[in-house]
Amino acid sequence: MITEKKVEQVVQIAAIVLLVAGCLAVLQPFLAAILAAAIVCFSTWPVYRFIEYRTGSRRGLAALAMTLLILFVLVVPLALIALSFRDDVPHLVENARELFARGLPGPPEWVARIPLVGGQLDAYWREFAESQDQFAEALKRFSQPAREVLVKTGLIIAEGVLQFTLIAFISFFFYRDGAALVEALRNTLNRVAGDLTERLLGIVGGTITGVVYGIVGTGLAQAVVALIGFLIAGVPGAVTLASLVFILSIVPVGPPLIWVGATIWLGYGGYVGWAIFMALWGFFVISGIDNIVKPLLISRGAAMPFVLVLLGVFGGVFAFGFVGVFLGPTLLALGYNFVRRWTEARAAAAPAASSSPPQA
Q1: Is the pTM of this model over 0.85?
Q2: Fewest C-beta atoms under 10 Å: which of 82, 105, 135, 228?
């Protein structure tokens, strides 16, 4: 028979569930910004602590300084990139149209020497280059989708400006009240997870550090050096191309697609010296960051399979907009590392249980 106490417990649980569901419904439009702000604050917490120390432990002033720093480092560059997309996309498409309107040059000699497929590829290339109508039709099919992709990318970045402005606003309160929030989180986890609390927090911290520094940090570094190289070589749409380098930096062959294209444009336009410079800069500097800097940055946290990084970035963009570039991989990395640690713990516990002596 159901007692009055059990009825009260059921009512209390139902009320708590409804309250949590209502809170989530209210916060749902801002959940992505809240999660992203938490990640940004955690990743930059040492900087905040330094500013707090320099301001005489005035948390409000230090939080305001960090908020302005986020606006300056994230929002302003994104706004400039969004404006550059608006201005540069028509020029880039027009330059590509003029470049290909001259006709496709003949294949290099090394194409014919490719094993197995070299002869066929060389013959097809020559036939394609001699057929201006076929080349013009291929260009027409390529230019319009490419322009649409660039325009959509610009819209995503423009949306990112608004998202990061909201993130900066939320971050102010996370910085100011961060210590109290972390203590409340630790107390909550202690009630739920008990002795596993510190281990869980360690997994979260290591994962966030690895993803933010390894993926986002590498992408930003590649974009900056790519921008420097494009500006030095006089490549048009340098800011737009550098932002594409950042977006494609998650793919090992992504950045080369951009700087190799810039190299071809320079060489085909008669700027042979600058084309050689761009090729060397791209190979040793832009791609060198991916080969050298990324492993060093990822080693600061927890690595994850490349396929999860790829799915996290694209899925994050579709789910959360521009902030999903680092929010998506971070969430997948957390899930991956929790499952990995859990399976490792189960695997370690199984031999221990089997080796224990039977009870009398």
Answers
A1: no
A2: 105
